[in-house]
Write a structure and sequence with these properties.
By secondary structure, the chain is mostly helical. 51% of the residues lie in helices and 0% in strands.
């Protein structure tokens, strides 16, 4: 890991991205090789993939989906849950207004 002096130097570079050290770190070849592009840019058509390094192109992939057991799937109840929620909120507000008017 970093020594305390190196850590302070690194934190200083993070605090000032326009500093010479920060620009040197951002332009390094090692960063170009190690950077991973997020998986969701696969579906974006206007994303410019030309600037990606060969390593980043290899790494770019979607995560494998997880199967959810049927016992964990909660069915949506029939009816209008939004209407019931709005009605409950209206009742509470009415009660609060009524209590406020009587006090």
């Amino acid at each position: 890991m970093l020594t305390p002096a190196e850590r302070r130097k690194f934190v200083k570079a993070l605090e000032n991205p326009s500093s010479e050290l920060a620009q040197t770190l951002l332009a390094s070849k090692q960063l170009e090789v190690e950077i991973e592009q997020p998986w969701w840019i696969n579906g974006v058509e206007d994303f410019d993939r030309e600037h990606l390094s060969q390593e980043a192109k290899k790494i770019e992939r979607r995560p494998t989906p997880i199967r959810v057991p049927q016992s964990m799937v909660k069915p949506v109840p029939p009816g209008h849950p939004l209407v019931f929620n709005l009605l409950a909120i209206w009742c509470v507000i009415s009660l609060l207004v009524a209590v406020d008017l009587h006090s």
